[in-house]
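Bench log. Compound arrived from synthesis this morning; before running ITC I wanted a structural hypothesis for how S-adenosyl-L-homocysteine sits in the protein. Inputs:
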Amino acid sequence: MTGCLCVAGLGPGDENMVTPEVRAALAEATDVIGYFPYVARVAPREGLTRHGSDNRVEIDRADHALRLAAEGARVVIVSSGDPGVFAMASALFEALEKRPDLHGLDIKILPGITAMLAAAAHTGAPLGHDFCAINLSDNLKPWELVEHRLRLAAQADFAMGFYNPRSASRPHQFSRALDILREECGPDRLITFARAVSTPDERITTVTLAEATPEMADMRTVVLVGNSATRRVGPWVYTPRSA
Ligand code: SAH
């Protein structure tokens, strides 16, 4: 048997947002690897081993997946959303860089619907013009760099999506991020807090920067900030396609 390795995105939560391509890869897998809650989204069945692991062990997880695939297993590494957005696809290639003997392995990256785009769709079209995505976590980069990118993106009038906005271990940083946004964008700019998008707990709230408080975000929230033309239309928020 020849092994293979897919890195698949499960989308933001709703099973209807899992692509048929990802479904097919999961149906043929012998091993599913990933963070516990994501692995739990794959139903158990005969012939499938589910390997759940803790957060922050991405490289170990990728090494494990490479070893299994090299031995002949059909392995799927699962990520939430899209695997290329602050997730396992890059971790896999980082591990692969150290294993030139495995560069010929059958590897596929299967895209998924990322949280930012699912949140935007449920809000209207807040990312309808140029936009960028920033991970606000300083786990893998210095906080100064987060601030620098945030400021420049705001000055360039991008609409923005923020992942990992706020966690219990770094409660002050998101507060600082809001201060920077108020300085650069003024008090009236629209900001959307989209929590647990496409799950039964979904809650989407749009306010102005003046009204925004750090407590509106947690680790299940993706935050969208409009550009200078972003506005409300009825219950929706949209950004015009022209600047
Ligand atoms: N690969 C994932 C992102 C992983 S980083 C993707 O493409 O969506 C984890 C962060 O994603 C969370 O802190 C949160 O900001 C965001 N996120 C993931 N799922 C979400 C959901 N259903 N609703 C809102 N935000 C979500």
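What the model suggests: The two ends are 54 Å apart (CA to CA). The first helix runs from residue 20 to 28.
ITC booked for Thursday regardless.
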